[in-house]
Specification:
2 copies of one chain form a homodimer. By secondary structure, chain A is mainly alpha-helical. Helix content of chain A is 67%, strand content 4%. In chain A, strand 1 and strand 2 form a beta hairpin. In chain A, helix 2 packs antiparallel against helix 3, helix 6 crosses helix 7 and helix 9 packs antiparallel against helix 11. The longest helix of chain A is centred in the C-terminal third of the chain and has 20 residues. The first copy, chain A, starts with a helix and ends in a 6-residue tail after the last helix. The interface between A and B is large, with 45 and 45 residues.
Chain lengths: 195, 195
Amino acid sequence: MDERLQRQLAFSLEIDKEKNIERQTHLSGNGRRENDAEHAWHMAIMAYLLREYANEPVDIARTMLMCLIHDIVEIDAGDTYAYDADALATQKAREDAAKERIFSLLPEDQKAELTALFDEFEAFETPEACFAHAMDNLQPILLNNANDGGDWREHRVTARQVYGRQSQTKRGSERLFAVTRAIIEENIEKGNIQK
Amino acid sequence: MDERLQRQLAFSLEIDKEKNIERQTHLSGNGRRENDAEHAWHMAIMAYLLREYANEPVDIARTMLMCLIHDIVEIDAGDTYAYDADALATQKAREDAAKERIFSLLPEDQKAELTALFDEFEAFETPEACFAHAMDNLQPILLNNANDGGDWREHRVTARQVYGRQSQTKRGSERLFAVTRAIIEENIEKGNIQK
């Protein structure tokens, strides 16, 4: 087998580990915690189905791929909960080191391509990155809402914290942020999110 | 919220259940069994990275989406192990009913689109379907090989059974079938696959 294909298969095997990275969000039906690979799969399908609501037209293949790979660095860096201030402070350094190690398994051209796509997601500027972030927010809020806000209650999350993160959805989709706001307000009303 | 968006979100929530459908394959590192959503995520990324080895050029967005949705019917129909003859006999009827129920949650145009894409995968004729099937075979064989063939040993699988399924990879990628054959032969040699 030539080196190129060997590297592609080594990377393919390495990313299997993403299935072991647990998130705070629980599956619907009050299930177990979901993992990064499941979350990414879910986001990519939602991106495809909901792309008509993006503020600007998106290249859907790029958006889906961005969704699929955006958490690969967490294989080394771990999941950083959206409302954990201490972990957020060290997140970038941990993720940069992980990005270098993991994408270096690939042939140079694919390393460069996936690194650029990951950086584009993080930079949060292009229509694709903004819409992928909207999915990154909307996917867990759908699950959490289906579980009567259990994740918010467990972490005693406040409206200010939820809006701080979820209002970013606007940058990808005003339409889907309207849905998000309705879900948040309903959960504040129910006492699942602290005022 | 209008009915279209409601239906899209209802479908998005429904497919969360795919994360509970367990496969026979174990994660690398002799991990737990993987589930359909993780498997689909893994296949879609591999399809993107390995597309240069497809026998014929593939539309990569269609191929990735096909990988992502190809097992959604198993939410109702369950996973059918590749080497379970009894379950294989009833697989089509179970999956047809599931396809109708689950995709009917979507707006009509998206129901039609995803149903057609699912049927295209099943028909196994287009370059995209053939390459997606190659990923459906290659992804678990990589994991199983990394686990020293544990899944084959557990089910006492024979070389004839493995080749019966895995030789289909040729239809999507001769190059990746060469890799597959090397893995199979090595595992026959080690006694992980019965002669």
